[in-house]
Specification:
The structure is a homodimer of 327-residue chains. By secondary structure, chain A is α/β, with parallel strands linked by helices. In chain A, 49% of the residues lie in helices and 13% in strands. At the A-B interface, helix 2, strand 2, helix 3, helix 9 and helix 10 of A face helix 2, strand 2, helix 3, helix 9 and helix 10 of B.
């Protein structure tokens, strides 16, 4: 999959979006880590779209919910890494029957998801790096593209230009922060619970870290706490020995993150803070920086996970159930 | 607050909804336990509304996100028990400035939220019972009322009639299941983590239990796992000694819950299952039973919490931070 091939597939999908009589809704439908990407993109739609509605749903929930608004004016964006997630493939079929335009992301061209969808874009999978060809970036490119075509949103060029700077920025961060990753790994290798906390565009990253990295790949209890929700229940579980990974975003959601951090850091001695500003997100134009932040957090957080896995002697590839049995 | 007073306030709010030129969106805006109620009502809108969009957001996230669609065609439904939650009061002000119709629920008439909102409905607070005057019921009555007035949805009468049966049904359940509550309390009084799991209309109840009861009131680590997401990460944390409280709903989301339960029960010996069918939800007309289920789960789950608190010697009223300091 070359840059040209991915770009061409994005153009094809956007041309189809342009050709629709109307587009009122984008449904973002996926499971697990792919669903987490959708949350950041629903956020983009709510921040940027004048009229278009963004709705992120787990694929099985999408099927059960059978949203009344699903129809010919809908675009259904799905994602499955293997392209074999049955409920996501089924969601595409339901969407097509309802007359929606279906655009899917998958790593595996030729997979059931690819075959079921009208348009497919594949992506680069390399968790310790970031580029315009990574799934989270491709998805956001599609969203900004749709918003340009359907509503005249002008951010796509700035966003795309910003993406070009990410590979070098992320490589540099990961090579320079090795000491931090090792320190985290040593400090938390015996932790039985680690919470993640974020808001805005970054909540999806915190969710992904909680369910895919900590619960799934490290068997550590976790939950993604929304920084705005923290003070209305979860904060009571904070104590000197309770670990939190706190993401500080940029843009309008940052005050929520800062408020949560100020409190949590006063009562827990086990805070790990990733600040998007310090990680370089603030170097991008203010019109898009809040949407760039999750693309920086994801690979950096993965580097923390790699070291944690090493310190625990529990490789990120180990599973006890996933892919090993019927479920 | 009599039945007649609450009914009159609902009628006033619905008359205002009827008088709007157009209603395209209902924003459900609140924090914590009040936000949890909103999730069940966003579900009602997505299942039932032909055109109207439902969007549930934490109040601080609503402010930060500043949804582009917010405007004169929006209804903003908020809820705060004390009526003093600053971010919810602020959300109402933002909504009014944008020209939205604001309807709030609070237990405290005369509170800042009441004063900030155009329409306010107060409610009965009695966590071990359920009635048409409880907050979750009042909210759903408003939603079905709006859907009737704006789109001709016909379920309000069946829904209201169903609500009338709830007080006796719930009282009966709670008096008959005392042994179950005690058994749960003894089994989990030393648990350091208890997950909750649900989907569809009941996900909000699972969320509320995780963040308000387990984390906030019992200082037990928790997370609400969406049953459809369980297989895409969280299930790897399942083990013989990991406790789950599983809600089985009725209606189209039930198969998701059943699938999650089938797997979890095979690998954990610490499952607590609340089945809406067994709790009487299936005795209601099929057109509304899935929306009634969360109203049954909430008080029954509270009875489990009461016994747990007793067995732990940790009253549900104890807090270390909430209301005790600045945050």
């Amino acid at each position: 999959m070359t840059t040209e091939q991915t770009d061409a597939r994005i153009v094809n999908a956007l041309n189809a979006a342009a050709a629709r009589d109307s587009v009122t809704d984008i449904f973002f439908v996926a499971c697990g880590g792919s669903y987490a990407h959708m949350l950041s993109n629903q956020y983009i739609v709510e921040r940027e779209a004048k009229k278009i509605v963004g709705n992120a749903l787990n694929s099985a929930e999408f099927k059960a919910r059978a949203p009344q608004r699903l129809g010919k004016s809908s675009i259904v964006l799905t994602c499955s890494h293997s392209g074999t997630t049955p409920e996501t493939v089924e969601a595409v079929k339901i969407a097509r029957e309802a007359g929606a335009l279906t655009i899917s992301l998958t790593h595996e061209l030729g997979s059931p998801l690819d075959r079921a969808s009208e348009f497919t874009v594949s992506y680069v999978h390399s968790p310790l790096t970031m580029s315009p060809l990574h799934s989270a970036a491709v998805l956001a490119r599609l969203v900004f593209g749709i918003l340009k075509i359907r509503e005249g949103n002008t951010k796509i060029d700035t966003f795309n230009k910003s993406l070009e700077a990410l590979p070098a920025l992320v490589d540099n961060l990961i090579s320079k922060q090795r000491a931090k990753f090792s320190e985290f790994a040593e400090a938390y290798k015996r932790a039985t619970v680690i919470y993640t906390m974020a808001s805005g565009a970054n909540y999806g990253v915190a969710y992904s870290y909680a369910i895919c990295i900590l619960q799934e790949m490290q068997w550590i209890h976790s939950a993604a706490i929304h920084a705005g929700e923290y003070f209305h229940g979860p904060f009571e579980v904070t104590d000197f020995d309770v670990p939190f990974v706190q993401l500080l975003g940029v843009g309008p959601s940052r005050p929520m993150d800062e408020r949560a951090l100020a409190f949590a850091a006063k009562h827990s001695q086990r805070m790990t803070v990733l600040d998007a500003k310090e990680l370089g997100a603030a170097s991008f134009p203010e019109t898009v920086s809040e949407f760039i932040a999750p693309l920086i957090f994801a690979p950096v957080l993965r580097a923390y996970a790699d070291k944690l896995a090493e310190a625990k002697g529990h490789p990120l590839t180990v599973r006890r159930y996933m892919w090993k049995m019927e479920y």
